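Postdoc handover notes: sequence design on the structure in folder B. Input tokens:
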């Protein structure tokens, strides 16, 4: 009979194994300047985009293990897609006009940034599709691959936990305590959207596909565009 302590230990072991897998397949991404620059930005509450991305990678691997998908998924692609799914490289809380439709566009921007910084050998078709479509069903194109579904589900699980955390209400205090010197020590990697027209970025995709979902069209229409 499983006791609460036994279940907690098993869960901890699962998380530990998953994190080791993330390090095995994604250490080069984690240590890269672009990924490190995600420490500049908060994602949900007190959680930085860097922390959130690591959590999603760990959760994706755990789900793959739990549902017996290890022989089905490409673990390298799963880990890379998880780590880079929010590689948009800006603070989405800032009220900038070019990313006002963040929920609909950031998967595409993350993909374009990732291709720019890591190349198509790393951002293969599985990774690219997973990045672009991880916000399904907000964007109404679903992932093509099992890896993409795992990233999408894990992202929502982690985001829910981060958003509901009591620590999130201390976010502003924590932000104010982060000194300028701390930020200056981190690498600066500009987002593709920040350095050129976002419309141009979203429509020049080198065959990856279109982001113009029905829901996105509706929002644009409501905004008179």
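Designed sequence:
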């Amino acid at each position: 009979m499983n006791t609460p302590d036994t279940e907690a230990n098993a869960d901890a072991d699962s998380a530990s194994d998953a994190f080791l897998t993330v390090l095995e397949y994604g250490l080069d991404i984690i240590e890269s300047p672009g990924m490190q620059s995600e420490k500049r930005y908060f994602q949900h509450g007190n959680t930085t985009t860097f922390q959130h991305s690591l959590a999603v990678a760990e959760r994706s691997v755990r789900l793959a293990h739990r549902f017996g998908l290890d022989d089905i998924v490409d673990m390298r692609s799963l880990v890379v897609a998880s780590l880079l799914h929010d590689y948009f490289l800006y603070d989405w809380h800032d009220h900038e006009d070019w990313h006002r439709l963040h929920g609909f566009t950031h998967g595409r921007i993350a993909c374009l940034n990732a291709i720019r910084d890591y190349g198509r050998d790393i951002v293969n078709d599985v990774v690219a599709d997973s990045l672009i479509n991880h916000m399904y069903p907000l964007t109404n194109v679903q992932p093509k691959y099992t890896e993409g579904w795992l990233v999408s589900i894990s992202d929502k699980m982690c985001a829910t936990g981060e958003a509901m955390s009591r620590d999130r209400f201390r976010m502003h205090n924590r932000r104010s305590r982060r000194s300028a010197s701390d930020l200056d020590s981190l690498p600066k990697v500009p987002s593709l959207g920040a350095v050129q027209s976002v419309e141009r970025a979203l429509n020049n995709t080198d065959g990856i596909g279109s982001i113009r979902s029905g829901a996105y069209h509706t929002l644009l229409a409501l905004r008179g565009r």
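Context for whoever picks this up: Confidence is low (pLDDT under 50) at residues 5-9, 175-181, 204-214, 216-220. Don't rerun without checking with the PI first.
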